[in-house]
Structures are given as structure tokens and as C-alpha cells.
Design goal:
Helix content is 48%, strand content 14%. It has helices at 22-30, 32-44, 49-53, 59-72, 91-97, 101-108, and strands at 5-7, 13-15, 75-79, 85-89. The strands form 2 sheets. It has a two-stranded antiparallel ribbon with strand order 1-2. A two-stranded antiparallel sheet has the order 3-4.
Length: 116
């Protein structure tokens, strides 16, 4: 972990807002499953990984996708009072670093329901 990285409330490492890299963010959003996850989180707010991805994504694949999204700084994870892990889009950080990027990507992507 570098001095610009930090831990989110779920105990996962994530890049600080000032160290987000455009290529990593775009790569994370280039996968259709990850894009669908981000769309759901952006529309519905914090939710569990399974709820964000849907029932058709295998658990190992789900973990890999969320790891990529966290590593790019697109999402962060927290633990609620019941011990349930929930992820959310780091919209404020992304908008501060890359104004309009997330809005443009989400607006041009197919709706989550259509992607199924």
C-alpha cells in the first residue's frame, strides 16, 4: 500500500481520490459485467455484491469483478451494523478527478435490465 492509498470501511485497499488513474478506471468500466454492477450501484445506492451483480454471476467471478472495481477506485465497500458488506460507487471522487466521465459512461451504456 502506498502513501496515497487508504483502506475503505470494509477493510479493502483503494486508491485515494487524487491518485485515481483514467486508464485504470476506463479498464474497470470496459467489462460488461462490471459496467452493469456500477450502473446498479449508481442507480440504487449501496448494496451487496450479489444484489449489484445479479444471481447469474458465479461467486469467484463476482469477487474478481469487485476487486477490479475497488482497485481502480470506482467503488468502495463498507460493513453495516449487521456485518453485511455493501459497496457503493465513489461518485464524488470520480467526478472530482474526471468531471463528467462517469455520467457520460453510464448514459451511453445499455440499461442494466437490457444487459441481462
Amino acid at each position: 500500500m502506498t502513501e496515497t492509498d487508504c483502506m475503505d470501511a470494509g477493510g479493502f485497499e483503494r486508491p485515494a481520490a487524487t491518485s485515481l488513474e483514467l486508464t485504470r478506471v476506463l479498464h474497470a468500466l470496459s467489462d460488461p459485467v462490471r459496467l452493469q454492477i456500477v450502473q446498479r450501484l449508481a442507480l440504487d445506492g449501496p448494496m451487496t455484491c450479489r444484489a449489484a451483480a445479479g444471481p447469474d454471476v458465479p461467486k469467484a467471478t463476482l469477487s474478481r469483478h469487485f476487486k477490479a472495481l475497488r482497485a481502480a477506485g470506482v467503488v468502495e465497500t463498507s460493513v453495516d451494523e449487521a456485518g453485511v458488506y455493501r459497496s457503493r460507487v465513489r461518485r464524488a471522487c470520480l467526478d472530482a478527478r474526471f468531471p463528467g466521465l462517469l455520467t457520460s459512461v453510464l448514459a451511453s451504456a445499455p440499461s442494466p435490465a437490457a444487459a441481462r
